[in-house]
Structure formats: C-alpha cells, structure tokens
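Cross-posting from the modeling subforum.

Setting up a comparison between two proteins and wanted a second pair of eyes on the formatting. Protein 1 (sequence, then structure tokens):
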Amino acid sequence: MTRTRKGTDPLRFAHPFYTPIPVPQRTLTPHGQRMTDHIQGTLNAIPPVKGTSIMTLADIIGQKGAAAIEKSGTLLFHATGDTGRSVDSAQGDVAAAMARDFNIAAPQHSPAFFLHLGDVIYGHTKDQSYRQEFYEPYMHYPGKIVAIPGNHDGETIPKTDPDTLRAFKANFCTPSARLPAIAGSIFRETMTQPGVYWLLDAPFVDIIGLYSNSAENPGFISGKIPGQAQKRWLVNLLRKTAEKRKAGKRKALILATHHPPFSSAGHSGSPEMLADIDDACRQANIMPDIFLSGHSHTYQRYTRHVALAGKTLAIPFIVCGVGGFNAQPINPAAGEIIGDHTFEKSHAGYGYLLMDASKSTLTIKAIGVEGQHASQFDSVGVAV
C-alpha cells in the first residue's frame, strides 16, 4: 500500500531508537543515535549559585544548636525523597513517623534536619502546589528541611511553569529566611541554601548535594545545556576535602543526587551521571563514604567496590525514594552481583532514613512506615 501524503517518510515506531542494531553501528538520525542523545537536548540550564555554595549547620539551625550537637558527639538527621502528595497520604504518615524521632527535652539528640532527596513537588503549577504538597504535610515536623531538586522540581511546563526551578528556589534558596505567603498560617520559614547544588559542612560529616537535572531518566550533572560549572565546583570541592583528610581532618563524606546511579526497579540507573561523578572523584583522588539518591519510588541498597589509591573501598549506594509518592513494586534481588556492585537489600513501601554520624562511624537505619506503624527493616554502617 502506498502513502497518500508526500514528504518525509514517517518513523516506523514512536522513536528512531527501537532497534537491535548496536549504537556504534546505527545510522545517525537528526535526533542522534540513541535516546540519551535526544534527552540531553531537553535538559535545562542550572541556575548559578552564591559564592562557594557552602553552608554550615549553624546557617540552618543557629550557632547554639550546632554547638550543642557537636558537643554531644553525634549528629542525627533524616533523609528520604519523592514526596509531593498531601498530609492525608503516605507522605503525611512518613512525616508523622519522622516527627516522633524528636525529643523536645533533648534537642541535641534529635535529628538536626531533614535532607530531601528531590521531587518535592509534582505536576504543573508548582508555585501553588507548595501549600498542599510541602507545607501542610510537614506542618508538625519540627526539623528544618534542606533539599536537592528532583527532575519534577526542575521540569518546565508551558504557561504554568515556564522557568526551571523557580518554585524550588523560592522556597529553598531565598536570600534570608522568611514566611512564604503560600504557607498561610503554617509557620515554616524558607531555607537559605546558596543554590540548587551545595556543600553542607556539618559536625562529623560533609554532605554534597548535586542537581541531576530535569530528565525523567537518566540524570546529568553537566553537559552542553547544563554547562560545566557544577562539575568544576565538585572537582574543586573534592580536592579541598582530600587536602583536609591528608592534614588529619577527616569527616564522613556523603554524596547525594536525585537520580540514582544504580536501580533495579521503578526507574533505571544513571551510568552517564555516575561516570561524570567518578571522573570528578578520581581527579581529586577521593570517593564518598555513602551515596544517597531517590527518583525510584523504592528502597534499594547496593555495595559498590571501588579501587582507589591502592585500596578497595566498599561504598553503600542507597536509593530512598519512598517519602510518600506512589510506591513502586520491586523484586528482591539480594546477593545479585552486577559489575562492580552488589544488590544487598530492597523494600517496597514507604519510609525514610535515620542517619547517625560521629567522629568514627556513619550509620544508616532504614525505617519502613505503614499507616501509623514504623519499624526498622535495614541498617548499614561505615567506619570514618
């Protein structure tokens, strides 16, 4: 049967990359040779950060609170990602469970903050969604909340969300703390993060939060459209951290991105992003002690074995995108070895991480939440 319309022949499938032909052997199309080529052309530029983009714990909770935590010898904090629902949902259940970890009589032994691993808000009209999807669910959560953006935080939507990360910056990156109008009578001040990627210099731990951009998959920390500023910043920061360690000033080092380097369910991993981060780490001759991410609405823990400076490191890579938005099914695969990493543990459902950092150890407890019930289902620790 012949075509009734003349012109360029339409694609056989919905995209030109549905083919068994290996990438190097494919004919170059106007859209590239693989889906990643197309995706890289849809990313967003990364907003500039302030100065060195470093904040301290005192910048978040005040000098008195930070000093009390340092004196106590341990720093507790929460972490999870992919929330963006409402108080009357699993997000509200997780928020309530995290709130129960606080002791008003001993604030130095309570979580210092909540590290949000991205996708704070989903869908369109993000400016207006912060009331229902952020301020209301955490109305009774007493801790401060710092965040890295997820792909949904950074996505642009014509008419309702034309500027990437506008709503995120308005709630997490304001010049000074203020009560946002969208929160109404809820008292939670905006955060004063120096940018959408940052270093948190805290007692016993350094946390590097990176922005892995707005694609559904995979993640990218640099590129033609995002630019190279974030990666240059990362290399410079890691080099300074390595120098401090050589001088005997060693703290735990956590890297966090929204997109996971490894994932066996929900969303796939981001090998391109990991290769970029690995390159930065090897330039500085340092690796993180733990890697945190979200995006896949599951809990997954891997151990990655990496050679560095004549030693083989065993680094936990944890996916914790179970903060309340549509938990995804996962098939347990404990013990499966995939290249340089081993799949150790998985969990379907909702929950969060309770992190405990001291001078000698960094421990993570994974807490599952079902309704009003919360219980630990996994833990892992590393020597610092």
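Protein 2 (same layout):
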Amino acid sequence: MPLLHDPAVSASIQVRLARLTPASRPHWGKMSVSQMLWHVSQAMDTALGRLHLTDKKPPIPTAVIRFMVLKMPWTRNAPTSRHFIPSQDHDFNAELARCRQLIAEIAAQSVDHAPPDHPMFGQMTGKQQSRLHVKHLDHHLRQFGV
C-alpha cells in the first residue's frame, strides 16, 4: 500500500488536489469541497499531535478496527469521529492551502517516528499512519471525482 512519505504518492495527491475548485461537487455524501478539505486536514492535524480528541472507545478492539481501516476497502458514507464532521462551510483556498501544507509536514517527518495514538485506532506506526492518510485522502478525492 502506498505511503504519503513516498514523493511520487505525495506529488500525485497534490496534482489531484489542484484539480479541485470551489465549484467541485461530491459524487456521494453531504460535504462541500471546502468541508472535505477541512475534514481531511483535521485528521492530519490530529496525527501531528495538534488536536487531542476524546471519542468513546469503540465496542471492538482498536487493533481490529485499525486492521479493517488499513486493509479493507472503505464504503461511501462510512462513520467518522464527531470531531471531523464539519458544521459549516470553510474558505476553499484557505483549506486547500492548509491541506497541502499538512501533507508536506507529515511527509517530511521520518516514517519511523512514533505518532501520537489515534483516537479510534490506537497506537499506530509511522508507516501505518502514512498509509492511513493516503487512503483517507484518496477516498475523499475520489468522492469529488479527482
């Protein structure tokens, strides 16, 4: 599975981000394009330790959830943390710039670093977290047809 730390993968995601416009519409789901950018950026800010979220622990072990999220296909409209659900529209250009910057920051970290525990998936390796961000970004970029 690709890693955000792979320069070719990061570049590919950046190219896809460049295809988004304020008028981009989702193929599924309720988020606007600016809300989607805010949503994926919240996840990356959490991975960088800037957001400390408190969610209820899931009813199944975090290792099982982590395995499912990393290894299985994602469905449309899958549940997410309440902290990642946007309540308003955001400035498209500001959120696009924020998303691009966060991708660069994560990719600049050593893939061997020990990231903060994920609020839903528990302790992850740097490689697992890098894979998670690629999968998350890809999922939402496909949502918007790019």
